[in-house]
User: Fold this.
Amino acid sequence: MQPTYAADAEAYREKVQAFLAEKLPAGWQGTGALEGEAIDRFLTEWRKTLYEANYLAPGWPVEYGGAGLSSLEQVILAEEFARAGVPTGGHNDVFGIQMLGNTIQMWGTEEQKRHYLPRILSGADTWCQGYSEPNAGSDLGNVGLRAELDGDEWVLNGQKIWTSAGHLADHIFTLARTDPEAPKHKGITFLLVPMEQPGIEVRPIKMISGESEFNEVFYTDARCPKDNVLGGVNNGWAVAMSLLGFERGEAAATGPIRYEAEFERLLALAREYGVADDPLIRQRLAWCYSKVRIMRFLGQRTLTKFLAGHHPGPDGAISKLYWSEYHRKVTELAVDILGADALVPTGRPPSSAFQTDDPDAPNSSASWVGTFLNARAGTIYAGSSQIQRNIIGEMILGLPKEPRP
Ligand SMILES: Cc1cc2nc3c(=O)[nH]c(=O)nc-3n(C[C@H](O)[C@H](O)[C@H](O)COP(=O)(O)OP(=O)(O)OC[C@H]3O[C@@H](n4cnc5c(N)ncnc54)[C@H](O)[C@@H]3O)c2cc1C
Assistant:
């Protein structure tokens, strides 16, 4: 199966390739060839370059700072960026642009669009996601953080947890309970809350990898203006769900490219450690290879639907379950190949706590061990594997619903 794109799509691909050739340094080998502070310096500059070219949110209308690209053009852009080993945005853009920005496009008032969208793109505002609470994770409808109106302001009290990048953000989109009497999914409001105020306290959580990428966030009489509601008071559940649909974004196009590159690195690792001929390792490598090939076809199916104008909907659960479960296994194999070296990780660590390391990253033990540890989280965040299976069972296969209390 070798899909082909129409001639005008290929012409656009050449345009993107020319952009990359012009903007990337001579001899560019991908972010994998950079280390330490050089990565952050490059990413900051690269984000600026994309901002100036209107490529940060390529699908947004031009009037809101996007490039107004068609779905096909967006896919080609993402593919070419992944092949060149450069990201399509900065670290925070998954929250600011992909999740919140897209949701504001869908639910925001004209005033909200004009205020927030340019600030997200320019980097003036950085956002994090305040959904999960100690008693509301998979069962998100259980959100208990209270918001009460006091004149022209909402007053918020309660706690969020697992807030990725909460220590770096200055705004948090918050699910809050605004009507405790209403049925649980009907009394929730989606609020846009500034974090630089005395009522908000952020406490970092140390992860198994040793990094502190997520946080607890405490609200004690925290305040936000009455109008900072997205999508209407007590309509937060619908807004929250549409945001989760955007969370998966372009992964269908870029995921297979990154996982294929990761598999090539794994193969090189097996050869380097002299175990590529070991029958048990070969069997596991072959399993990984088959999985990555299937992932490409799965991605193509998702893309075909996307290009035909369909939102992934419950189908997104198949991809989420697939890549996250695969990633646990492939990184376990890497750690088995490393053997005792995995106990003393050395060399360049992964540049991201999410998904694969950079395609051309050195095959260091620190890269694989870091990715192995982070892959444990992949089957939890953005909906755990059990929840994805429930969605697939109930919404795609039409199996009976699980008993609800
Ligand atoms: C790295 C990382 C980053 C995160 N970033 C953010 C963030 O930025 N903002 C944010 O709001 N949240 C974030 N989260 C939280 C994430 O969304 C939750 O961890 C996730 O939804 C699961 O909720 P929980 O941790 O409360 O587990 P629980 O919901 O308590 O689940 C515990 C276990 O029970 C299982 N389970 C629960 N319900 C069912 C059911 N009905 N059927 C079968 N099994 C079930 C789950 O699958 C899981 O194995 C992040 C999590 C991680 C790991």
Summary: The beta strands are 127-130, 146-150, 153-164, 171-177, 188-194, 200-205, 214-225.
